[in-house]
Amino acid sequence: MALRGHLDEVSHRRVYGWVIDTDHPESELQIVVTVDGHEYGRCAANQFRPNLKQHLGDGATGNHEFCLKFEPTLSPFRQHDVHVTVVGFPHQQLPGNQRIIPAATVTRSARAPLLVTSTGRSGTTMLMSEFLRHPQIVVADSHPYEIKLISYYASAFRALVSEADRENSTHPDQMFTGPNRYRIGHNPYFMSGLFGVIKNDERMAHLFERVIPSALARDFRDFIDRYYQLVSEDQGKADARFFAEKCDIDEAAREGARMFYMPVREVVMVRDARDLLCSAKAFWKHSLEDALRTLESTLPRLADISRAAGEDTLIVRYEDLIRDPVETRRRMYQFIGIDLPAAASSGDALFGVHGTSRDAAASVGRWQQDLEEAEIDRCEDLFADYLTCFGYGRRNVAGPNNGRLHVVPNADMHRYLNASTFPGPNRTQLTAIADRSAPSPEFAAHLLAGWSGLEQGWVWSNAERSTIRLEWPPGATCCRLVLVGRPFVSGTRTGSQRLIVGVDNVPFGQVTISRFAAIEINLAERPAENASQLTITLDLPDAARPIELDPKSTEKRLLGFALERIIVCCDGDSDMIAP
After folding, report:
1. Which Gene Ontology BP terms does the record give (predicted)?
2. How far, in whole angstroms, is CA 502 from its chain's centroid?
3. Which of 419, 472, 494, 527 is the most exposed place for a label (fewest CB within 10 A)?
């Protein structure tokens, strides 16, 4: 078998070309496109191109063209490695089958950006007010600090360097008609089909793909620098190391900042979704449905940002900023790399007129008083992934233990799973007396009904209810069972799993997890008098069979939760126990 073909275009918008198996010209070939080491998608080389049939001859049908569009388009702020292969031809390649789509390059600036990223009503204005008073940070404007030059120039950069899209963006015949008089879109002449106006089309491609983006990036960054130089001189902070701006959660704003500047410091503010709902209704006078729609467009993006966060990004919970202002700010300023200001110690001092509660402390947990039962349920169901991602538990489920159920925050997981002592109720200290991992016999001894076979490192739940047994530690007055594992998720079809916990068939609480987690089941007292053994039930209403969600899967088990590790903690001096 022999391939013949050509890769006509590899851009941020699409991969386009043609290919034929010369030994079997009537066969339909499959194209695989890989972006940055991960398969992006596949398409068939079956579109008709008239000149191919005549040019190739020898049985060619002309149906050999392929086109795979990137939706959304690849980011113009980052370099991309695009690789095109043909299924069944691992050792034969199209001309130019691997292509680097370059990113713009700029030199280092004297002053670095400090981004404050979030949705509205999350404390960003309060934080910007504090940054304004720091001698090493320049902040433009006054309350509510909405000048966002990086976001603006990032938006302009994206439009000016993106490949032509005459259908959805600028058309050369309509640039000055109607509302287009006040808009600018993609360059309508940046397309591979026009590179041939000169004999060496690679030189033209180099101009559009490297020279113009780098020049625009340098100019835009220089405009921002000049602006903040004027502001810094006016504020008497000519030597300030940072300028702070609120940053949009859109990918263009965040990636644009990292293209214009290196390094960047980004503080991402998050807040309990239920309190955000209260604040949106009070501040913007939104109806419940309007407020929920607004949050639906923003909160999932914050969870995605958190999961992809690198060393230049710090997640700060609004609640921590209010309840533990000194320690939270110490951690934040250490991350930024500047001294903690002496005045940065009170949430109320910074709350100001932007708040909708009587004081800063009252803005935390207000949903428990301000929202109705149905509103809480709607919010918790819609934003289960967000709440779990940032360590916000669902509302307690009534039961004899009053819902003492907790998912360890992601930021604390590493420290938590390597600790041997833990804070308990009423200022007690709990000690880990048993720590068992799959597939050890000691781990297996905890498992009762509803589990699949042990695998190397975990065991899957395989029923709508799975059970675990726990021997109450002799002499202990309180006990904690920690279940460490991950949920079964499958894209948008199953994005999280609810675990409804019962103890000796009595409802105990519910949590929702969307990623690897440690779940604390805190037993302050024996649910049954003189009971030495407890039965823990896990109801999994979101469990699913992969084969029913993905036609390519052969997995028929009903999967919900993969349990990897069981930790038993108690107070007192109990010895290591058997299950």
Report:
1. N-acetylglucosamine metabolic process; sulfur compound metabolic process
2. 31
3. 419
Distances 77 to 117, 269, 337, 495 between C-alpha atoms, Å: 18, 23, 26, 29
According to the model, what pLDDT value does residue 572 have?
Answer: 67
For residue 31, what pLDDT is reported? Answer: 92
What is the predicted pLDDT for the residue at 411?
Answer: 53
Give the helix/strand (H/E) hosting 82.
Answer: strand 80-86
Residue in the block written with tokens 């149905």? 374
- By CB neighbour count within 10 A (0-12 exposed, 13-18 middle, 19+ buried), where does 229 fall? middle
Give the Å distances, CA to CA, from 210 to 70, 79, 82, 133, 203: 20, 11, 16, 40, 10
List C-alpha distances in Å: 11 to 7, 73, 79, 209, 258.
11, 9, 11, 9, 21
- Tell me the mean pLDDT per 10 residues along the chain, length 579: 84 89 89 91 91 79 91 88 89 74 82 94 91 96 91 94 87 87 88 85 86 94 96 95 96 93 95 92 84 91 92 94 90 95 56 46 74 85 90 63 63 73 72 89 93 92 94 82 89 71 84 83 68 86 88 89 92 52
CB atoms within 10 A of CB 185: 17
Select from 413, 466, 459, 463 the least CA-distant residue to 439: 459
Domains and CATH numbers, the chain: 3-101 (2.60.40), 112-354 (3.40.50), 396-570 (2.60.120.260)
**How far is the C-alpha of 355 from the C-alpha of 177, rounded, in Å?**
44
Place of tokens 């609004």: 318
CA 27/CA 42 separation, integer angstroms: 16
Cα 51 from Cα 309, distance rounded (Å): 49
CB 438 within 8 A of CB 565: yes
Backbone φ and ψ for 507, nearest 5 degrees, come out as: -55, 135
Tokens encoding 553:
């899967």
Tell me how far apart the alpha carbons of residues 77 and 217 are, in angstroms, rounded to a whole number.
Answer: 10
* Secondary structure letter of residue 455 according to DSSP: B
Q: Strands of 242-323 (E only): list them.
A: 242-247, 265-270, 313-317
455: phi then psi, degrees, rounded to nearest 5: -120, 175
Distance (Å, rounded) from C-alpha 373 to C-alpha 355? 24
**pLDDT score, position 578:** 40
- Written in H, E and C, the secondary structure of 555-577 is CCCCECEEEEEEEEEECCCCCCC
Q: What's the one-letter identity of residue 61?
A: T
The alpha carbon of residue 204 and the mean position of all alpha carbons in its chain are separated, in whole angstroms, by 37
